[in-house]
Design a protein that fits this description.
106 residues, elongated, single chain, mainly alpha, 2 strands
């Protein structure tokens, strides 16, 4: 939170700290960010849905991506696709690997 406030105060008022599912409520700000041609987009969707350590995770990758929590990865990738940054940083969890074909289709 402090990082976003500092960035917005010192550089440009475009940094957003928000649940990725709510970002379309900030369309005008996203449009402004896209016009600035962002170099980096950083996101951390929760990994519980994909983590191999989660004994209760859904085994079917399609259902896992569509589940609450699992779908946050898709939302993050939609934002990345829209903004077209040079680089994006997103948490990598081994269990996401079997979801890649589903993610690519969407």
């Amino acid at each position: 939170e402090n990082c976003v406030e500092t960035y917005n105060y010192n550089i440009k008022n475009v940094a957003i700290l928000e649940d990725v599912r709510n970002l379309y409520n900030y369309y005008s700000k996203l449009k402004k960010i896209k016009q600035l041609r962002p170099l980096v987009v950083v996101g951390g969707p929760p990994c519980e849905s994909h983590s191999l350590a989660n004994r209760d995770r859904i085994k079917n990758p399609y259902l896992r991506v569509c589940s609450e929590g699992g779908e946050l990865l898709l939302w993050m990738l939609k934002i990345i696709e829209y903004l077209e940054p040079d680089i994006f940083i997103i948490e990598n969890v081994v269990g996401m690997k079997d979801c890649l074909p589903i993610i690519i289709q969407n």
